[in-house]
Amino acid sequence: AVWLLVCFTSSRFFKRFQGGAWTWTRFLNTLGHFLQVGFSVMSALALQPMMCYQHPNGQHSLLKHAGVFCNTGEHLVMLLTGGALFIFGVATFLGICGWALWNIPRWSLVCPQRIRAFAFLISRFRMGCWWYGMPVLLRGPLLSLCPVLAPDFPPAQAAMVTVVLTAGLVLHMLFLPWKMPMVNLADGCLQSMLLLLVAITPAMGTASAHSIEDFHEGVALVMLSCMAFVLATLAFSVGFALVCYLAGAASP
Hints:
The chain is mostly helical. The protein has 10 helices and 2 strands; from the N terminus they run ααααββαααααα. Strand 1 and strand 2 form a beta hairpin.
């Protein structure tokens, strides 16, 4: 964000010499792209200090940092930092995006240039599903929230993750929001595979340790191979479409 602000300020300063300065809408749209890419990671980092699991002796440690005990000074610092990141990063960005989506229909009539500042939120979806950027954003915080609500009960975590993924898959199947049909197919396949991996996790506790490990490795290998195939097919399709477009544009 600081780097983008420096670039924006520099472009405005050198505008008097050679022109081509960034506009506020272009700056905000670029910043939104960066925040959108890192939003899921930012949500997970903000909620990590809230994921405490219980030891057999009754003490609690952080799930990601087992050497840090909960309700200590070190944990308090991490908790305050995570809370600040959640409030000023995750919640603020979600609030701004929600406010923008609420006002975009009105802006399209009275002030269309404002929509360009939030093109990162709506440009990838069909006209009838311009609002779908919000469900995509919400998926990250909701998945990160599952270990916070049930840190000592993996079946409950799996159930909550299943609910989130199922809701996202149903919403995707109802609206098929992406502009490219191939992207809709790939997204649906990836969400289905993730849902299958999560759904079979609680059932593994009923078998022996050796069979659990073998079964988990086999299923994970098959699912990851399928995901890699879907992503490779999607990348090939996009690359082929781009080559065809450039070839058509270059021909007289």
